Amino acid sequence: MAVISEVDLPGVGRKYEITTYERDRFTIVIHHSGIREIYIYRDGDPDPLFAVELRDDEARQIGSILAGAFFRPRAVENLEVVLQELRIEWFRLDARSPVVGKSIGELGIRKRTGVSVIAIIREPESVPNPSAEEVLRAGDTIVVLGKQEGFEALRRLIEAAP
Questions:
Q1: Termini Cα distance of the chain
Q2: pLDDT tens for residues 75-91?
Q3: What are the pLDDT digits (tens) for 112-125?
Q4: Would you place residue 101 in the very low, low, confident or very high pLDDT band (cuts 50, 70, 90)?
Q5: Which of 4, 40, 83, 154 is deepest in the core (most CB within 10 A)?
Q6: At 147, is the secondary structure helix, strand, or coil?
């Protein structure tokens, strides 16, 4: 899961830091004036790979695009109509996750979270409809079906301290 932290910057605004699954980092500074500064860092490098400054209206337009207000892939639209309140989410497992090395059944994912693991994306070959005996590995991306509260419970399970 992406990790997001926020900090007030007195006299300036607020700073958000987002660390992605791939350990890349975005820093977004929102100034009281409405200006946004976005810094992108790669793999622990202290110097930004890229930086951009956006006016308030530009930031709002980009935010709308990222949120899917302008374009939604047809596959997502079709799934949402069919699934209604159910959603499909992807969770990447890193080596530090306490679920790595344990089977789906041993973890009791469905019973503990209410979501069902419907596939595991892994190299060299993905696993559709994995059995309860399937052991989760570092680097796996588990594809789950469920409701929002189940995703939050799964996220807590995946990130829990061992």
A1: 17
A2: 555 555 445 677 778 88
A3: 999 999 889 888 88
A4: very high
A5: 154
A6: coil
Residues 6+ apart with CB under 8 A from 134: 103, 104, 117, 120, 127
The sign of the dihedral angle between the CA atoms of 136, 137, 143, 149 is positive
Unique residue bearing structure tokens 């009791």: 108
- Quote the CA–CA distance of 117 and 104 in Å, as a whole number: 8
Tokens at residue 10, please?
């007195």
Structure-token match 């699954």, residue found: 21
The dotted CATH code for 74-159 is 3.30.70.1450
Spell out the SS3 assignment of 55-83.
CHHHHHHHHHHHCCCCCCCHHHHHHHHHH
